[in-house]
Write a structure and sequence with these properties.
By secondary structure, the protein is an alpha+beta fold. It has helices at about 115-120, 120-125, 130-150, 190-200, 235-255, 260-265, 280-290, 305-315, 370-375, 385-395, 405-415; strands spanning about 5, 20-30, 35-40, 45-50, 65-75, 85-95, 155, 160, 175, 180-185, 200-210, 220-230, 275-280, 320-325, 340, 340-345, 350-355, 355-365, 400-405. It binds aspartyl-adenosine-5'-monophosphate (AMO). Belongs to the class-II aminoacyl-tRNA synthetase family. Type 2 subfamily.
Length: about 425
């Protein structure tokens, strides 16, 4: 019999052959006269069978989390889910662990606190479900990227060490840069706008930094921002339309390419048709009226209000998403374009998904004069922003875009309680290690 080196997803093509496949021993489950040896490969957990008749070594020699090359016979078996059994002939141990895992990682899920789950991240991620989360996240990014490229967006990479904050507020990390002040980018806002003047449509998927001092289930200090920016738009609604199509495309992409993970994590993929939109002020009043909630903050949503609005929309329309438009100017950064009819209001929006804000977007000011005027009204140091204002000064099309928080999006898709579950190695106010 010929011995071939195979990947897990090729096994079905090798019934009747002896194959070699490598991976880590995920779990050994002893039965009365044989044992299941589960092999963790790149994406699949492969079930192998140890039997005294075929296997040429004692089972006691095997240890969980050993890295091995398995030689096995792929035998047709109609009772098996896969249509075959993988009977182990021999195992070559390449590396054995020094100690056994301090946390049980090979059950259906890792049964521990979120702190331990994250403290032991390098190994807890080996759990089948834990690692599937980040395959889904990969699929989200691939789907988004494929969609945006199809729509003729150019992918860019912008600096994360910057000279000024783009989003305002106190949540900016400072650092010393060869004797000068520098910051960690809160967003690629300035740079993606500049690149609209170059490529018309651009996007970036990269880390950004927010010095959030609050320990909440939705705030990270480092997260992945999915940003796009497009020129020659007629209105900010065009950005919302593009995001709607992007989400629809991404869910289809996941459905097509991530079936095993969708099944394993029991993901409920939302159906995206048209996403309902409500104006900010109307949403505030609606929540107050429907849920007898007193409005305490007239300029922003409280987390509870985001949840209630989503609930209301879901019950009325069936949509898991809702756009909220016309956010108050004073809560939006200086680059946001205002509604000419009502200066208190911006031509911007947020997208809420299953109770949480996952996107902010809108139209930007493209006129140099208008931008300078607004900055003056805000008492900003115009000189400091000279390099940003260059694009306005030397010609810019009407444009707008958005930023979507990848971890928030993933965690809501997976209906998790905390954004950290969808962050490989979260950075929060208490966490820098691992
Ligand atoms: P904003 O500051 O609203 O907008 O951020 C956009 C999206 O990023 C996510 N997000 C976060 N995720 C995890 N932890 C955080 N601390 C955190 N902060 C924000 C959210 C949010 O909706 N430049 C604009 C976008 C634009 O207009 O293009 C911006 O950064 O999902």
């Amino acid at each position: 019999l010929e011995k071939v080196v195979v990947e897990a997803d090729e096994l079905k093509n090798h019934i009747g052959n002896i194959v070699q496949i490598h991976g880590s021993i995920y779990k050994i489950r002893k039965m009365s006269d044989f044992a299941f040896v589960l092999l963790r490969t790149k994406r699949e957990i492969v079930q192998c069978i140890y039997t005294k008749e075929i296997s040429e070594f004692p089972l006691e020699e095997l240890e969980e989390e050993s890295c091995v090359i398995v030689s096995a016979y792929v035998q047709e078996e109609s009772r098996s889910k896969t249509g075959y059994d993988l009977k182990i002939k021999n195992i070559n141990v390449l590396s054995a662990p020094e100690a056994s895992s301090p946390i049980v990682i090979n059950n259906k899920f890792v049964d521990t606190s979120i702190e331990k789950l994250l403290d032991f991240r390098p190994i807890t991620l080996r759990n089948e479900k834990e690692r599937a989360i980040f395959k889904i996240q990969e699929g989200i990014v691939d789907g988004i990227r494929e969609f945006l490229k199809k729509e003729r967006f150019t992918e860019i990479r912008t600096p994360k060490i910057v000279y000024a904050g783009a989003e305002g507020g106190a949540n900016i990390f400072r650092l010393e840069y060869f004797g000068r002040n520098a910051y960690l980018a809160q967003s690629p806002q300035f740079y993606k706008q500049m690149m609209v003047g170059v490529y018309e449509r651009v996007f970036e998927i990269a880390p950004v930094y927010r010095a959030e001092k609050h320990d909440t289930s939705r705030h990270l200090n480092e997260y992945t921002s999915v940003d796009f920016e497009m020129g020659y738009i007629n209105s900010f609604e065009e950005i919302m339309q593009t995001e709607t199509m992007m989400l629809r495309y991404t869910f289809q992409y996941l459905e097509k390419n991530y079936e095993p993970e969708i099944k394993l994590l029991k993901i409920n993929l939302p159906f995206v048709h048209e996403i309902p939109a409500v104006k900010f002020t109307e949403a505030k009043e609606l929540i107050a009226k429907e849920y007898h909630k007193e409005i305490t903050d007239f300029d922003d949503f409280e987390p509870e209000e985001e949840k209630l609005l989503c609930r209301w929309i879901k019950e009325r329309t069936g949509s898991d998403f809702v756009f909220v438009t016309g956010y108050p100017s004073k809560k939006r950064p200086f680059y946001a374009m205002e509604n000419k009819e009502n200066r208190e209001e911006t031509l911007s929006f947020d997208l809420l998904f299953r109770g949480l804000e996952i996107t902010t977007g809108g139209q930007r000011i493209h006129s140099y004069r208008e931008q300078i005027e607004k900055m003056k009204r805000r008492d900003m140091d115009i000189e400091q922003f000279e390099s940003y204002l260059m694009m306005h000064k030397y010609g810019m099309p009407p444009h707008g875009g958005l930023g979507l928080g990848l971890e928030r999006f993933t965690s809501k898709l997976l209906e998790q309680e905390n954004v950290r579950f969808s962050t490989l190695f979260p950075r929060d106010i208490n966490r820098l290690v691992p």
